[in-house]
Amino acid sequence: MAKTKLVLIGFLLSSYFVLAQKGYQLIEDLHYYSMSTQATDAYLKERCKLDVYFPKDTTNVPTIVWFHGGGLEFGSKHIPEGLLKKGVIVVAVNYRLHPKVKNPVYIEDAAAAVAWVVKNIKRYNGDASKVFVSGHSAGGYLASMIALDKHYLAKYQVDADSLAGIIPFSGHTITHFTIRKERGIEGTQPIVDAFAPLYHVRKNAPPFLLITGNRELELLGRYEENAYFYRMMKIVEHPDIELMELDGYAHDMVYPAIPLLLNFVKKQRN
């Protein structure tokens, strides 16, 4: 009984709970907005936190910022199992969700989190010049938006072009369907406006790896959106973009895509 109590007490420690895992530590629930900003919004204070999973004894490590999916309406920060103990830092981010907030709050939170990483990752053995941004579905959409529309990160004096790479997993390149829903637009009506990564196609964006499931199994049009974005980036002469379609996999294609993400990180480091 005493042993069980100790385990429970361990899990009920403060939000800065540190977990050792064979050379790694996990620090949970770090706020990425300032204390003064947190004081203005209880939901922001509750939700806008991130976890940092990092190797204890290695420095200048590349970092993968991971945004969870869930249609901008649900989901929670987590570190994909395939990224554990892979020689990289992983930062898992929570952001505010619809219907408690509306666009562009989701994108603003994503930018604030990435800016926090760029400015603070050295404390966790990372290198600010090796920050990669990824995520699945809505998370992939957020990764693309903050990398392509530079004004979100510029608010924090971070140049989006300094990011080492962007790896959206099955992310929208048109305006997100939840943002369209907020305007009363059906999910089958595509829109390309300032809230679409496609709207911000440009040559000098960071390197991109686009990954989707099989075009016949994916959410409607998701592969084709990414294929069009890929083509337009090639037309503007972006020098480093790839598109990969995972045969046999539908929208839930995170696990088989993780090795592609890690290979991309390794390639960009060389």
UniProtKB/TrEMBL annotation:
Hydrolase listed as a keyword: yes
Record-annotated BD-FAE-like domain positions: 50-215
Record InterPro entries: AB_hydrolase_fold, BD-FAE-like_dom, GDXG_lipolytic_enzyme
TM segment ranges: none
Keywords: Hydrolase
GO molecular function, one term: hydrolase activity
SUPFAM superfamilies assigned to the protein according to its UniProt record, in alphabetical order: alpha/beta-Hydrolases
Protein name (record): Carboxylesterase family protein
Organism of this sequence: Maribacter luteus
